[in-house]
Write a structure and sequence with these properties.
alpha/beta, 8-stranded parallel barrel, 6-stranded antiparallel beta sheet, 23 helices, 30 strands, disordered N terminus
Length: about 750
């Protein structure tokens, strides 16, 4: 952006005269405000007027090759500043500050039902996996009116785009690729690989015309190693305050590992981590090491190579990264509040500049760290995370949007963070439970998880109940394995600790999904890489992808629809992906061997897919992902077939929306007569506990065999008629023991309405 007192001709492309300025003054140069177009295509440095006052003998001249990519080159520094997210955040803040629009919306408290009323069924996209027309961008493809017409028929009302802003890093003058599927953001600008800002705005307009909305991502926990991190390494202005990074004095560099040629940092081993903690430089080991891989990531800390700053000082840093080495963690309590400014600026850019309606908060449970008196540092469930989430979510609500969080911590952490922070939370409570139920044909662990959730104050209306997304099937079971590790639970007729319960469930999932099946893979210590259909295929006994013939598809589809009914026929948001819609299997490992070399097995579940059959001959997406095998086919053909997955999914969503279960209240998860059954009882009250509302019962069979059983709940009113909402038929009556009988086929699902008797 060019200010009123600046002219385009003031931008100068020749060499910069810094005579009369020492290195400290160079570091204090005020960088210009720029537009987002200028940021994507950075202008060369503006003319810097010579100082009126010369300092005689103190004059030092900086002579450097203009191609030099380090702190001695002011041109390089300004080029980095122009691309930095912190600079963009400062520009946006000044634009919005003091505007009346900032005071029109309530923002103090989360409101799940308000968010759900805006959009309750989401499509979760993944940019590099969508097959588009030749030459068509990902964002243009999502903005296709035909796609939104298909979504409208199915009942989908929002697209979560996934991360589409520039990500990865900067090395010298060049950008480096993302190390984590574009969740290592380095800019507010749209990555040209996915489209343009105009195409993003057009997408928002098309969605609105179909009664839908767009959900974007922000990453409050970390960035990539882009311009902000490179400036931080140089000790430039506020930039070191963005990150959890500590400058190690040269006299102690011998404590740090050598950084190999061609690398910019190296992960600390546990002994070095301990020694630096003993010297008082870092807080040491954290509660866990996410993505732990021997020889690759053994701690959450890495040391940088020596970096020279514009002040002429060479520094080495140790920085925190909860996730991969290329994802330095943001410091939410630095005195500059630079990290907070960066994140809020990114959020406001998505909401105000691009036109999104909501934001996903990625990895937002890891925003506070603190040294402990003994044992590992306090890094999960920290009050600073709650405070930071309150600020982010409050700002988003203040401008009319809402947020949802992906927080894989204990139920208490989800409850406490959600009390003041995000409006919705991703369902890490029921998700491993329903996968375990399908894998074993038994719902006991799922029922234990759901009842525990209600008892601890996390209601399903607060959750985003999802099928597959870009991540692994997470089976860490943090709730049971950490805070409740020593608590005792009743499971399969015996007493068992939370830690043993978590281990049992993990072992059974691993064996069922990867023991015989060679097409699913374990992902580090976090879970299993698979698609919904490859998960189901493994539970049905298939060992190889070639064994899954056309004859196997109906049974896989029935189980897949059961999982849809479980997620859709309870309060909260229902989310599914393109891989779900087309029935995608995993990609054979030999087709993506290069992507798997670093140990990230999740790539097998991210096969390219064509939702509209726009390029039937394509073997890869534009980003290069191989096309996976789709059991159900593209949406246009599916929607012409009443028995297809998409058509039957539409019927499931129709019942959900017709009876308002998305904003209902779950009141009971009763015991069941058959191990494979699950019963959920709801009041269709839109959250009003005093309303005279009808009752609804969801009954599901997670086994492949037909089953009969009795539904009993103290919430049921005797002599009520039990009506199958799909057919309108009366299928039973509630007896005086507050029960009724049901019969379901294998993988069957029933949406039942209870019509109470008229008062005498």
């Amino acid at each position: 952006m060019v200010r009123d007192d600046e002219r385009p001709e003031d931008l100068y492309t020749g060499p910069i005269d810094l005579s009369g300025m020492d290195a400290a003054e160079v570091a204090d140069l005020e960088m210009p405000e720029i537009s987002y177009d200028e940021q994507r295509y950075p202008a060369r440095p503006r003319r810097l007027r010579p100082r009126d006052n010369l300092r005689g003998s103190s004059v030092r001249r900086i002579r450097t090759d203009p191609r030099t990519a380090n702190g001695t080159n002011p041109s390089y520094i300004e080029w980095l500043v122009r691309q930095s997210m912190l600079k963009d955040a400062d520009v946006l803040a000044r634009q919005l500050s003091g505007q009346p629009a900032m005071w029109r919306n309530a923002y103090a408290r989360p409101d799940a039902r308000r968010a759900i009323a805006a959009t309750d069924v989401w499509f979760t996209a993944y940019p590099i996996s969508l097959i588009t027309r030749p030459g068509e961008s990902f964002l243009a493809a999502l903005g296709d009116d035909a796609l939104w017409s298909a979504f409208e028929r199915i009942g989908i009302t929002a697209i979560h785009t996934g991360p589409v802003k520039r990500a990865g890093g900067i090395a010298g003058w060049a950008e480096t690729p993302s190390v984590d599927g574009h969740f290592d953001r380095i800019s507010t600008a749209i990555d040209s690989a996915f489209g343009t800002e105009d195409e993003f705005r057009d997408l928002c307009d098309v969605a609105d015309s179909h009664g839908g909305s767009i959900i974007d991502d922000i990453v409050p926990g970390h960035t990539g190693k882009g311009a902000d991190f490179r400036l931080a390494e140089m000790g430039f202005k506020d930039y070191p305050g963005i990150y959890h990074m500590v400058a190690i004095p040269p006299e102690d560099w011998h404590l740090l590992p050598e950084v190999p040629e061609g690398f910019d940092s190296v992960n600390l081993d546990p002994a070095t981590e301990h020694e630096l903690a003993e010297h008082g430089y870092i807080i040491g080991a954290l509660q866990r090491v996410i993505f732990y891989t021997p020889g690759v990531k053994e701690t959450n800390w890495s040391a940088t190579a020596p970096v020279v700053g514009p002040d002429g000082i060479t520094r080495r840093w140790v920085y925190l990264h909860y996730f991969k080495q290329g994802q330095p963690s943001i410091n939410w309590l630095d005195p500059t509040f630079a990290g907070m400014r960066l994140v809020i600026g990114d959020a406001l850019h998505s909401l105000g500049e691009l036109g999104t309606s909501a934001l996903r908060l990625d990895a937002n449970g890891f925003l506070g760290v603190e040294k402990s008196a003994g044992g590992p540092a306090w890094s999960e469930g920290h009050p600073l995370s709650h405070a930071a989430n309150h600020i982010i979510a409050g700002m988003v609500r203040k401008v009319g949007g809402f947020t949802f969080q992906e927080l894989n911590l204990t139920m208490e952490d989800i409850r406490d963070t959600g009390a003041v922070g995000a409006d919705l939370s991703y369902d890490f409570i029921g998700r491993p439970g329903y996968h375990h139920a399908l894998a074993t044909g038994q719902t006991e662990f799922l029922r234990l998880a759901l009842t525990s959730s209600l008892e601890l104050g996390v209601e399903p209306v607060q959750l985003v109940h999802g099928l597959q997304n870009h991540d692994e099937l997470t089976y860490e079971l943090v709730h049971w394995a950490t805070r409740h590790a020593d608590d005792v639970y009743r499971f399969r007729g015996h007493e068992i600790t939370g830690a043993d319960l978590a281990e049992t469930v993990r072992a059974e999932l691993t064996e069922a999904l990867t023991g015989a099946a060679d097409f699913n893979r374990v992902f580090t210590q976090n879970g299993i890489a698979c698609t919904s259909t490859s998960l189901i295929a493994a539970t049905q006994g298939f060992a190889r992808l070639d064994d899954i013939t056309d004859a196997a598809v109906p049974a896989i589809r029935d189980a897949h629809l059961l999982l849809c009914a479980y997620n859709a026929w309870q309060p909260g948001v229902f989310a599914l992906s393109g891989w779900d819609l087309v029935g995608m299997l995993t990609v054979p490992a030999d087709q993506i061997s290069e992507l798997l070399t670093a140990g990230d097995t999740r790539w097998i579940e991210r096969g390219a897919h064509d939702l509209l059959d726009v390029d039937p001959d394509a073997t890869r997406s534009a980003a290069g992902m191989p096309r996976g095998r789709a059991l159900y086919g593209a949406l246009p053909a599916q929607l012409e077939d009443e028995e297809s997955f998409a058509s039957r999914l539409s019927a499931i969503i129709d019942l959900r929306r017709e009876h308002g279960i998305a904003t209902a209240t779950q009141v009971d998860i009763p015991e069941v007569a058959h191990a494979g059954m699950l019963v959920l009882v709801h009041r269709l009250d839109d959250g009003d506990a005093h309303a005279d509302a009808p009752m609804q019962v969801t009954v599901l069979n997670f086994s492949a065999e037909p089953t009969e059983g009795t539904v009993r709940s103290e919430q049921l009113i005797p002599r009520s008629e039990v009506i199958d909402a799909a057919s309108g038929d009366v299928v039973g009556h509630v007896d005086d023991l507050q029960s009724f009988s049901v019969s379901l086929p294998g993988y069957g699902a029933m949406f039942l309405l209870l019509e109470a008797p008229e008062a005498e």
